[in-house]
């Protein structure tokens, strides 16, 4: 695909409604989550409910929660440095992002930052799930078979699924609690505290009809956000930090820019302060550019072969 051909294929809904490629979208087995929704109009409804959560205003309100987990990671890194131990950044950042997604999504983290070696098994688990998606593209009925079989048999035949089912059970339990909280009379202060959380925003969203707020659909939505928000963000951070440390001139220039910012403030810098730094912003953009290659889920297969442009 040449640069000139991108515009006709990748267009907004005002130009043409484009469904996702079903073969690619089915890889996660979460057809009711935004990422697995094929139909353009249904996807738009489901995705619009998440827009407010990912807005700048929402992220700013969640910043104290995020900062708390970052502070915890820094403490652990200093402890490891004092003990002369090396750190696997992928594991460390996976623990960080998973705890942030858990806290900002449900109001309580998974406590992975406090586990030995930053819960190395957590990253392994998520990567194994990611690898299995390629198989599921070819044989999507495997998901249905695993769900129909007795759990004890599934755990014996496929240990990875055991951990996945337990995670899904935990997510569904939290969703039921949140639904009950919204349906009943809850302390006003608690409601005010939780209204910034992703799950509570989805349940209260005026953009979603009741059929879109079922336990199953919300569970699939949160599971995909947890997986995507953990692994991809952790990898982006790892790649970015590696290139900073591997290039002393870049590290020195970034350090000077951050030093100038901190010296001019009598408080801990906020996201708003950081995003004004030109060199840091350039590094963030480079990290995002380097983190992944082509994205198969964005393949304009249907547009190229089945649409009239």
TrEMBL record:
Keywords: Iron, Metal-binding, Monooxygenase, Oxidoreductase
Required co-factors: heme
Keyword Metal-binding: yes
Entries under Gene3D superfamilies matching the protein: Cytochrome P450
GO MF annotation terms: heme binding; iron ion binding; monooxygenase activity; oxidoreductase activity, acting on paired donors, with incorporation or reduction of molecular oxygen
Coiled-coil regions, chain positions: none
InterPro entries, per database record: Cyt_P450, Cyt_P450_sf, Cytochrome_P450_monoxygenase
Top-level taxon: Eukaryota
Family per record: Belongs to the cytochrome P450 family.
PANTHER family reported for this sequence: CYTOCHROME P450, N-ACETYLTRYPTOPHAN 6-HYDROXYLASE IVOC-RELATED
Protein name as it appears in the record: Cytochrome P450
Source organism phylogeny: Eukaryota, Fungi, Dikarya, Ascomycota, Pezizomycotina
């Amino acid at each position: 695909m040449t640069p000139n051909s991108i515009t006709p294929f990748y267009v907004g809904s005002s130009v043409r409604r484009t469904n996702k490629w079903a073969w690619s979208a089915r890889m996660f087995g979460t057809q009711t989550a935004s990422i697995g929704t094929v139909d353009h109009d249904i996807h738009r409804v489901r995705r619009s409910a998440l827009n407010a959560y990912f807005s700048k205003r929402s992220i700013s309100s969640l910043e104290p929660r995020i900062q708390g987990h970052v502070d915890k990671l820094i403490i652990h890194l200093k402890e490891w440095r004092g003990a002369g131990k090396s750190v696997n950044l992928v594991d460390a950042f996976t623990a960080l992002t998973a705890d942030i997604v858990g806290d900002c999504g449900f109001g309580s983290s998974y406590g992975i930052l406090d586990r030995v070696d930053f819960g190395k098994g957590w990253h392994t688990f998520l990567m194994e799930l990611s690898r299995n998606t390629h198989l599921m593209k070819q044989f999507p009925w495997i998901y249905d078979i695993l769900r129909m079989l007795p759990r004890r048999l599934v755990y014996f035949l496929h240990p990875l699924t055991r951990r996945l089912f337990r995670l899904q059970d935990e997510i569904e339990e939290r969703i039921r609690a949140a639904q009950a909280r919204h349906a009943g009379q809850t302390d006003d202060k608690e409601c005010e505290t939780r209204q910034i959380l992703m799950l509570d925003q989805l349940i209260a969203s005026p953009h979603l009809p009741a059929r879109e707020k079922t336990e199953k659909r919300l569970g699939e939505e949160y599971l995909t956000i947890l997986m995507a928000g953990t692994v991809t963000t952790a990898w982006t951070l790892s790649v970015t930090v590696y290139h900073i440390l591997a290039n002393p001139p870049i590290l020195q220039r970034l350090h000077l820019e951050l030093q100038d910012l901190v010296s001019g403030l009598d408080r801990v810098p906020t996201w708003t302060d950081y995003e004004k730094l030109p060199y840091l912003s350039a590094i963030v953009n480079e990290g995002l550019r380097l983190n992944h290659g082509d994205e198969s889920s964005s393949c304009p297969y249907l547009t190229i072969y089945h649409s009239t442009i």
